[in-house]
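Write out this protein's structure.
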Amino acid sequence: MSVAKKLASQTAVYGISSIVGRVLTYLLVPVYTARFAAAEYGIVTGLYAYVSFLNVVFTYGLETTFFRFANRAGADRQLLYDRVLSLLLVSSVVLAGLLAWQAGPLLQLLGLPPGHERYAVWLALILGLDAVAAIPFARLRLENKARKFAAIRMANILLNVGLNLFFIVVCPDVLAGKYLTDLQPVVARLYDPTIGVGYVFLANLAASAFTLLLLGRELAAFRFRLSLEPLRPLLTYAYPIMLMGLAGMVNETLDRILLPTWLPEGFYPGKSSLTAVGIYGACYKLSIFMSLVIQAFRYAAEPFFFAQSTEKNSPATFAQVLKWFTLCCALIFVLISVNLEVFAELFLKRAEYREGIAVVPVLLLANLFLGVYWNLSVWFKLTDKTYYGTYIGAAGAVLTIALNFLLIPVLGYMGSALATLACYFMMAAICWWLGERHFPVPYPVARLLGWLLVATGVVALGWLVSVESYWLRQAWHGLLCAGFLGLMVAVEKPQRVLARR
């Protein structure tokens, strides 16, 4: 099997769990937006923004480090697995304990309303369990056990979605006498209405615990071996990745943390800042389709890139991978942005959430550049110069904070979306420029930028040309998407590439 087909097949398997699973999770957005007011949903959005930061702290770059050291000549993979997992196990217990112990003061520090301390405790447990699961999952990817990886991920998501539906939809409806009234005594014992949005976190916690059970075989092979001296080179490699990840989280989630702080009072008439965060967070979810592709690709590509690093033709392979990745993402950007009216009707059930959909094309394009950056970042991972990732991520974080500070008071959440786009574009540009000097790869930069300009022009046509009739408008949007796809096939001829491969 060619390297391209192998990467594509692995991406497809990871993509099934990632895309199908995330789509299932995404189907909860209309449930949340129908059952919770924007201010309540703002609590979920805000807390999960902090969880994204803490996820990076809990794993501190050891996942990528495990891949790097496991692919070195003569590496004892079982010994490496034992040492890395032992370290993560100890640190997860300590960090989760600290978070749970300081739940109250931390919530006050974050400016969240009192009475939600138990949410912080549940999130601390989720973070600890997910960190411990990270290395067994990495081992599955290293051993190319994509199907098992995908199956466990799917089980996690199905349980999470099922519990969400049970506690947020079924239980309240049964108690309200809408259906299954015979079950009211049982539901009354299981369901506590005062928990409210907290069931989102409880469902997540149950799914994380279940995932560890499914990883039982990988955990049974683990032996506790904690010795700091052999871990020094791993930690030296890992800490820049952790800093890079933290900077990445600043770029990805800080807007939802800064928005309620820097949004002027009364910027959106009749809406609180927490409501604005809820609207922005719900609209942000519509850019998830781009994130899904990036995540599925990352699962497959990370071990692939390390395995290909010693091949003579690896630069040419990396260039082809980036080209087709960018073209696929450009098509997704056009399909979603042009047909956003339909997606918004499907997923944002309350009209108040649909007020913010103009941010979605901006966020989709931003995530596309994030995926490009992730592809380009292969050079500093393969040359063991991970500190460059820290510098680039830090530069992006500074730009994110500066632009949010300048734009939120003027443009509201659109300012946050534009800051995200500017940040990821700059990171991709710097990473490409530095990569050309340390690990040259013949990327078709001008050609790809040309395609992104065409895609942006198609999206602009879809938004600016007004068609009054609903069905004629959908036909016009369909024509634009088909035209873009046809142009791409005619110029790039993917069928010939596949035939050659």
